């Protein structure tokens, strides 16, 4: 991070968001992490100081008695920085304007891109936690066929799946970066609900429990011969895996079966081709091409609307980089972790498709959530 | 809202946060709500237009094709506003700076205080939803004594309580306003975990599942003769109630029993005294006085740290106004809904105390989550 700060001519970064704090320090307590472009970082803890000091390996940890003392401490520690980096994609405007007054004369710049880019490459320790997260996630999905019953409401299925995950240590919440974004475990939808469009940029939305929470499971009763799509995250020890499977009680209409087959083929094609150095955007366009050649373009990643991505990084947040997306013309990077989610939406019928989380290695993609990708007929 | 905009000399407000959108329009789809200080509001929907139009009663609903068209539409609709209100306590700095460029020449001001103040008074329809939310919450708590067993992990108890709530339509998430704030159902802690301090401004914190999610239930096994504190929200049809009960398997040490009694007395005293027009801050100080006279000041609302509030508004968000807090010298208002939560923390032993959600009426407080306030011994 310090190299990148130097390269961008930023004298110091102030890290505030809890996931980034955890990433750099090992603690998510309420704190300011001061990272000068050279020299030791300094962790200023508001609350709770005792917990932060216990959790972090950083040497320089102090209690921040009052936010008003921040300029003196930072100016002293970072030789009166002229350019200060903040996470401006998540820091509220009010806080930003407050820091602007506190650091009168300094230029405030956005370091969220720098931080997000740095987190693309996972360390060995992070990959190990993600593997463990995937193992628990697979254990949850293994139990779904025993839970799913004809006539149960979507929300009942959600309740029972969530309870299984929670007992294995799921956080009960999936950190999502950005304004107005909130998700708990993910999306469970049955039949036509699977094709109800979303208010945000995701392949599926769902009707939810009403207009105040317009996503995921609702009160609809699950019937036979319709797709039940379970797009839930595993979120254990801070790290996320993302996974989707389609279930059905009895057989599904041929159109849906065929589309699901195409989705799995698209995933397999990407997994087969992807190598570090390849353009992420090209992989997205190849997925689109495949769907078009299969005559299913109109249903791919939305109905009459094509989501601009087919894959996304996961880690401490669900929407990390890289993106397999239109406009993301960056090379795929070794040791990154991505979820690939080709899905088809059929209005009135529902959603089918697949999602798995992969580790990018020099030899190609390793599927971390490996289990049967087919429609699971009960 | 328009009266308040006029009074503050704001020509138009642009409402963006999903809870506020839902409050004013009935839909939480991704949209800009344009409220001129006079004349009709206009809802510009990014996604999903069909759902938004179906859900809202507003007449003026349009698809926003591109954010770049926003200045022309707003200038046309609001006669080129000189002062534009935004929700600057939640809108990220990056978005704020983008709007500043879009509306070059206009002054951007914060309307979050105005919106939060307006939401203090609940309508009859809102109170009815909150009553229904309370009824479901009571149904969940009624089942806790059947779930709680010696030797189960906190997270197992959490999983089973959450599943009950979810089946009754709980959202699985509790909207909290502010940076770095996230909560799912609330806090469940046993024994000494109940007194582990929090990273944020709340009476209890809990150890959680590790430093990446340092709050609420963890892996600790629940034992006999220790307090198990369940501070969970009900969140149904958009509206929240907040409630805490303490359970124990077998009897508790006398110190804790006495402190719980004092907590209930403090709650009852506030509920007895509170009337519209009274100072919210004074009610907070009276709670502090009561705790001090009982010789328990050191343990009240934190150990060796006194939380600056003993009550908070609830509604579409968990941390609404008013606050029964130091520095909140505002009169209590008829038809507001508040949660009152006097609690005591004993390091090494745990937390005891009570929380209920009340409706403020001209005759005093009506307890919406009325059930046994005592320690529930199993």
The CATH architecture assignment of the largest domain in chain A turns out to be: Alpha-Beta Complex
- Helix vs. strand class of chain A: alpha+beta
Order of helical and strand elements of chain A: HEHEEHEHEHEHHHEEEHHEEEEEEEE
Q: For the terminal residues of chain A, how far apart are their CA atoms?
A: 50 Å
* Strand order, largest beta sheet of chain A: 4-3-2-1-5-6
CATH superfamily of the largest domain in chain A: Creatinase/methionine aminopeptidase superfamily
Q: For the record, what CATH class of the largest domain in chain A applies?
A: Alpha Beta
Shape of chain A: elongated
The two chains with the largest interface, and their residue counts, are:
A-B, 68 and 68 residues
Unreliable segments of chain A (pLDDT under 50, ≥5 consecutive)? none
Descriptive report:
The structure is a homodimer of 378-residue chains. Chain A has 378 residues and is of the alpha+beta class. The first copy, chain A, folds into two domains: 2-118, 3-Layer(aba) Sandwich (Creatine Amidinohydrolase, Chain A, domain 1), CATH 3.40.350; 124-377, Creatinase/methionine aminopeptidase superfamily (Creatine Amidinohydrolase, Alpha-Beta Complex). The first copy, chain A, has ten helices and 17 strands. Chain A has helices spanning 2-7, 18-25, 49-55, 70-77, 93-102, 112-118, 124-147, 154-167, 254-273, 280-293; strands at 12-15, 30-36, 42-47, 61-63, 83-86, 107-110, 186-190, 228-236, 239-248, 309-313, 320-325, 337-340, 343-346, 350-353, 356-361, 364-367, 376-377. Chain A has a six-stranded mixed beta sheet, sandwiched between helices. A five-stranded antiparallel beta sheet of chain A has the order 11-10-12-15-16. In chain A, β10 (309-313) and β11 (320-325) form a beta hairpin. In chain A, α7 crosses α8 and α9 runs antiparallel to α10 (280-293). The radius of gyration of chain A is 22 Å and the shape is elongated. The model of chain A has no long low-confidence stretch (mean pLDDT 96). At the A-B interface, α3, α5 and α8 of A face α3, α5 and α8 of B.
């Amino acid at each position: 991070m310090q190299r990148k700060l130097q390269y961008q001519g930023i004298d110091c970064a102030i890290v505030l968001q809890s996931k980034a704090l955890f990433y750099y320090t090992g603690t998510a307590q309420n704190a300011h992490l001061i990272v000068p472009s050279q020299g030791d970082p300094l962790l200023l803890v508001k609350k709770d100081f005792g917990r932060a000091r216990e959790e972090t390996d950083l040497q320089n940890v102090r209690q921040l008695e009052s936010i008003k003392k921040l300029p003196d401490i930072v100016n002293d520690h970072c030789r009166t920085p002229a350019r200060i980096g903040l996470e401006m994609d998540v820091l509220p405007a009010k806080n930003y304007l407050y820091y602007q007054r506190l650091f009168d004369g300094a230029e405030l710049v956005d370091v969220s891109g720098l931080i997000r880019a740095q987190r693309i490459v996972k360390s060995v320790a992070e990959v190990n936690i993600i593997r463990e997260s995937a193992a628990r996630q697979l254990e949850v999905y293994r139990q779904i066929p025993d839970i799913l019953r004809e006539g149960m409401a979507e929300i009942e299925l959600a309740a029972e799946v969530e309870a299984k995950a929670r007992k294995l240590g799921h956080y009960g919440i999936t950190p999502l970066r950005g304004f107005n974004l909130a998700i708990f475990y993910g999306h469970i939808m049955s039949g036509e609900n699977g094709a109800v469009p979303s208010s945000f940029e995701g392949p599926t939305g769902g009707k939810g429990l009403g207009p105040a929470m317009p996503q995921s499971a609702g009160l609809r009763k699950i019937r036979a011969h319709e797709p039940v799509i379970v797009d839930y995250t595993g979120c254990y020890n801070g790290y996320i895996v993302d996974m989707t499977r389609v279930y059905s009680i009895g057989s599904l209409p041929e159109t849906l079966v065929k589309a699901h087959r195409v989705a799995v083929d698209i995933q397999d094609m990407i997994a087969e081709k992807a190598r570090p150095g390849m353009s992420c955007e090209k992989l997205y366009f190849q997925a689109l091409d495949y769907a078009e050649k299969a005559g299913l373009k109109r249903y791919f990643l939305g109905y009459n609307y094509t989501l601009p991505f087919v894959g996304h990084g996961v880690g401490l947040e669900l929407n990390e980089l890289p993106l397999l997306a239109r406009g993301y013309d960056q090379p795929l990077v070794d040791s990154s972790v991505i979820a690939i989610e080709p899905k088809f939406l059929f209005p009135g019928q529902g959603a089918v498709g697949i999602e798995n989380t992969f580790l990018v290695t020099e030899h190609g993609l390793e599927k971390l959530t490996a289990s049967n990708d087919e429609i699971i007929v009960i």
